[in-house]
Batch of 4 targets.
Target 1
Amino acid sequence: MAFTLVRRKAVAAHERGSLPAGPLAAVLTVALLAALTAAVAWGSTSIPPGEVGSVVWRRLSGEAPRPGTDDLIVWQLRVPRALLAALVGAGLGVIGTAVQALVRNPLADPYLLGISNGASLGAVTAIVLGLGAGGALGLSGAAFVGALATFALVWAVARRGGGFAPLRLVLAGVAIGQFLSGFTSYLVLQAGDEQQTHSVLFWLMGSLSGATWDLLAVPAVAVPVALLWLQARARGLNALLMGDETAAGLGIDVTRLRRELFAVTSVLTGVLVAVSGAIAFVALMVPHVCRLVVGGDHRRLLPVSALFGALLLVVVDIVCRTAMDTQELPVGVVTSLLGAPALLYLLDRRLGGGS
């Protein structure tokens, strides 16, 4: 009887105050398409949306591109960048949602597990030591190796002594992440010249300027696959939020699910940091906003978080490219300026409402 009451209360908490996810997802999809069009059309050289559509249609239909700069700007530069922004934003939204369920902490994000720090260290090492001669792909590879190495280290420390406790995982991630962050700062100081230092700092604050069609391949596969995998385990994610005993009573293998969640979120974090650098606050803020709108049921929360994260980062990237005439702003700077006040407002609203 007590178990049934706990389950009913948890379900009610998931449903309370939620809007229909279907219409909201449709609105977000339309808004995302509009933002992608604006991202390709706007910039130092503005291109009419009709011409953008014409260039994209000719490319997709296999027609020969028209001579001129519009095709180069639209197809080779801006379309890959806009798509990369959407993929990274969607991935960060999904990761944030999964990590918060993994550790049952609404303030959790990939930085809490140290994975972002490991990816950053790998990329900075490649830049400072001149190992990124392969260009953006070489830099991404170094970041991905750093993320996987950090994942293995955090996992080994968290599993030390047997068992799998969320608190031990968080403490291991925070400690190792701070150590790697300090080592990264040391490497930045060892950069050989001012231009190299600027490149490292710009990458650490997040950047989508290196987007190419080749760079899109891995995140274009990783983000949808991770979303589908997590969506298939939405029931388990809901159960984790009720507590381990309740989740186990519902037939969930809690230890196995947490292990799989940690592996998936770590790999996806490595992929995203490898192609975009360290972008703060998106993975932390997006689930909060979406949870207020659609509730805590992960069957609705995951796809809405992916769409909202994609929309948010596409809009942020437009601001980064167009806010200043002489230079481009790092993406992480804008997300921090937006994310910190938004998070404070959400926390004030949540605490003020007694939730």
Target 2
Amino acid sequence: MKILLAEDDPMIGDAVEQGLRNAGCSVDRVRDGKAAELAVRTGTYALLVLDLGLPRQDGLAVLKKMRDAGNTLPVLVVTARGAVEERIAGLNLGADDYLAKPFDLDELVARMRALVRRHAGRARTEMRLGPLSLDPHRREVRLDGAAVELAQREFALLEALLEIPGAVLSTEQLEERLYGWGEEIASNAVEVHVHRLRKKLGAAWIRNVRGVGYRLVEPA
């Protein structure tokens, strides 16, 4: 899943960004509230991790503008330990959850995944289509009960297609899900990942909708 991280502290931001990448996430990072507001308006993300103490525009202002505009993107607020009033204000403005600094990275990832599941209307961690299942927490894929080993971007591609089985995602949408800012993207990168995923799952699982994109279907 693709995450927007709004954190201006260099040490915390670098550690969280690297930790999220190690957990299989694609991450775009901003360091002030104005940049966060712009990224939310123009990008496509599964979740926003929002520090409230941002320069230029604080996190509460970013959150308020988002919710006033009808943006339902899940938001996990991070605050200084003991900042109870800030946490309450954030929740009242529409934040979905919060963590106090310093926090455990594994807990952050677990809370993020829970929020994304809740937003998608899924109670279970596992995503499934017929005999194909994907567990984002364990980073496991199984087909007919047998484990399927996938590279990180193959896993991210399958996760994106499994969120709404049958829905068509364009190449541009999939690039946004698989890559963060500044990462070099070859012109045929998505096609290469689709080809490799088809080899591991079977070609019939991923349909090419000519001129539109790709969708995941259970083979007949």
Target 3
Amino acid sequence: MSDDIKISLPARIEAVLYLKGKPLSSDEISDILKESKSHIEESIFALIAGYSQRDTALEIKDKNGKYSLQLRQGLGELVQNLLPVDISGATLRTLATIALKKRILQSDLVELRGSGAYEHIKELLAINFIERKRQRDGRSFWLTLSEKFHRTFTVIPDIKETDPKKAA
């Protein structure tokens, strides 16, 4: 982590739980973040307490010693009704990861999201929300958001500046 950007341990745990999209033990989180298990557990309890004190759609759940970040009970149907397409929460998390990165190698995405990401990628390609191009010097693919994604979610894509002097 860069010295000029300090992100708290609870915030980093929250990011890991969001991106992994599956329950993780404190040992697994400890391995990912390279922090002691005791610091991880203290921060998880701080996250749980913080969520319980706020009126928020998300919560940290502890089931059999594994933690997950999820929607509060009763909000699943609302979210599904708001989505312009019928995709699972796991596929939506994979799409969100691609959107956050703007451009990511398929191999890096699978490392972040797990092997289930291959099915999510197939689904997202089938509905034209992402584009895939073979990496020039490697065996993986670059994944980026498609024009259809931007139209569907009314997100304005980055506009590339063109320098008229360089175009000549």
Target 4
Amino acid sequence: MSGKYLVTGGAGYVGSVVADHLLTAGHEVVVLDNLSTGFRAGVPAGAAFVEGDIRDAAKWLDPSFDAVLHFAAFSQVGESVVRPEKYWDNNVGGTMALLGAMREAGVRRLVFSSTAATYGEPDRVPVTESAPTRPTNPYGASKLAVDHMIASEAAAHGLGAVSLRYFNVAGAHGAYGERHQPETHLIPLVLQVAQGRREAVSVYGDDYPTPDGTCVRDYIHVADLAEAHLLALDAATPGEHLVCNLGNGNGFSVREVVETVRRVTGHPVPEVAAPRRAGDPAVLVASADTARARLGWAPTRTDLAAIVRDAWEFAQHLTREQ
């Protein structure tokens, strides 16, 4: 059965891929994005586009919408440390306005783009949803605050909501992929080295208690992530706030990523040793058992080389565009 969905932040990386999946499934999609970090080219053909701020969502939300999928957030960890007010204002204040607009319009389902940054430095891996939430930066703290806000809205006003806590999203889906400015994610940074756009990749710490001494992270393909959002729409239950981690359940080290990029691209990727970064856990891997049980979701694109290959094709597409 087709529905009508508002996708906030739908011109960004994950939002654009989810919007495309919704359209493919036969749904009507309205993308709301102020293009502060998103790109007009990221809005899929077939989606209606509104250039605007989430604080003004009440202008466009009405009872004809079946749900909101909310991706509109600032997400740069480093920037959040030096400009925390920007993150509290948009991520928290903007979401509060969005929840108010949904309440007024009678739109009672929400899927929220949350993050593993809510956990901070976990005591155990794989990380479950019952792990203590101790964010180490304002970005993670702002997302955790929104999770609390959504839980209150569900309890008080009957909202059916699912928060999806992503681990490391990677890869690309056709014409939709990572084009952050500035770029901070490992795989696109290493691909930029392979393209000759950067001289080398910095390896932050090589003395961690891991097999090769570098940090281990859980990479999830963006298309697997998108499929979880569509399943979450069906799982949203009035009065309940469900939290699900999304990840492969397997970890890959920084050096494994770099070596995979060399193999996939056929290009040299010089490395430069750099000091550890404060707050970087040695291993960060998700338990996705809740998503499997409650959403019926399981990742299918778990091969690192396949994830890198998709990201490489998109990176070359971007270069041809420029």
